[in-house]
Amino acid sequence: MESKVVKILAERRTAKRYIPDYKLTDEQINTIVEAIRLAPSSFGVEPYHIVVLTNDSPIKEELFDAWYEQPALKQSSALFIWISDKEEILRNKLLEERISREFPEGYKQLIPQYLQGVRITIDGNNYDMTAWSKQQAYVSLGTAILAANEIGLDVTPTDGFSHLHVGQILEAHGLMDTKTQIVTVGMFVGKRDTSDPHSLFFSKVRREQKDMVKIVKK
Predict the structure, then answer these.
(1) How many CB atoms lie within 10 A of CB 99?
(2) Residues 36, 50: contact at Cβ < 8 Å?
(3) What is the pLDDT of residues 93-128, one digit of tens each?
(4) How many percent of the chain have pLDDT more than 70?
(5) Structure pTM?
(6) pLDDT of 197
């Protein structure tokens, strides 16, 4: 039986050009947001926030220079931005706060022991918690891409921008705090403009499974 997920991944392409006047519905936005919210997260910490700027938002236009004048920023129907938590606030507040919420009444006494195990894992592997936080954001980016494609939308994961400049603009609008947060990655969302010759440059090419995977059964 063919996997629906594998079919989506086989057929999806990163959009290069978008239909400028296509507007997302609230339902479409909510579907993607909910997929992000329900994404796997190490220790259940969810060390990131999401900002969604639709094509009606003047802030999206304001980010054009910081996004190195990529046409998709103006053309796309929405821009999703992942903002990750930095190491200090994770260690001093968020790890305990967000892990503790997972334990129902009757199990709260297990929290200190569990937190100790988490900290041993983190320190024993010399985790850079800011980098770890950004890695968690990328996990949820993957679920967002799948969710968007499943409902017939096109997306462009985007890391080619001035993270510092974007952070400054978002902070100026009260959308993040650069002391405790860092901009990680973005995603353009909308409908691909198939009439544009630049919409698709090349065919999708991936390595064969035998060239990238080792399956060990014994």
Answers:
(1) 16
(2) yes
(3) 999 999 999 999 999 999 999 999 999 999 999 999
(4) 98
(5) 0.94
(6) 74
